[in-house]
Write a structure and sequence with these properties.
This protein is of the alpha+beta class. It has five helices and five strands, in the order βααααββαββ. It has a single domain, classed as 4'-phosphopantetheinyl transferase domain (Ribosomal Protein L22, Chain A, Alpha-Beta Complex). The protein has a three-stranded antiparallel sheet with strand order 1-5-4. Strand 4 and strand 5 form a beta hairpin. Helix 3 packs antiparallel against helix 4. The two termini are about 30 Å apart. It catalyses: apo-[ACP] + CoA = holo-[ACP] + adenosine 3',5'-bisphosphate + H(+).
């Protein structure tokens, strides 16, 4: 079942200007060390990388149903990438507490995130899914048994 959906559109030039104005103060407030390393590893796309992650954090806060006003810290949400390049959202702190509170018993929360950019825009969509946890001890029903 879907627990939450969020989307956000960020202006890459605005993020670039904010980085130029506030530098590390902004970066350290919003992005984890891992996110900063990822952006710095892409010298021709630093601002776009940050803008996509900014949009993902905004989208995640919306999917959690809180926005960034209700206690979630920017750094409570972080984006990394699998070896395949697929983005993955990690939540800690208050964001993780909120996610646990909205996840029904017997389910696990799965956060799906997709990112894209086309200068000057970066976009993110986040869908939070509650997936039923299979009981490995429960017997198979007639519909689940093999012929």
């Amino acid at each position: 079942m879907i627990l939450g959906i969020g989307s956000d559109l960020a202006n890459i030039e605005r993020i670039e200007a904010t980085i130029a104005r506030f530098g590390d103060r902004f970066l350290n407030r919003v992005f984890t060390e891992r996110e900063q390393r990822k952006a710095q590893s892409r010298p021709r796309a630093i601002a776009a990388t940050y803008a996509k992650r900014w949009a993902a954090k905004e989208a995640c806060s919306k999917a959690l149903g809180t926005g960034l006003r209700m206690g979630i810290s920017w750094r409570d949400m972080a984006v990394s990438n699998l070896r395949s390049g697929q983005p993955v959202m990690h939540v800690t702190g208050w964001a993780a507490e909120r996610l646990a509170a909205m996840t029904p018993a017997g389910h696990e929360a799965v956060i799906h995130v997709t990112l894209t950019d086309d200068h000057p825009w970066a976009q993110a969509f986040v869908v939070i899914e509650a997936r039923l946890i299979a009981d490995p001890i429960a017997p198979l029903s007639a519909a689940q048994t093999l012929p």
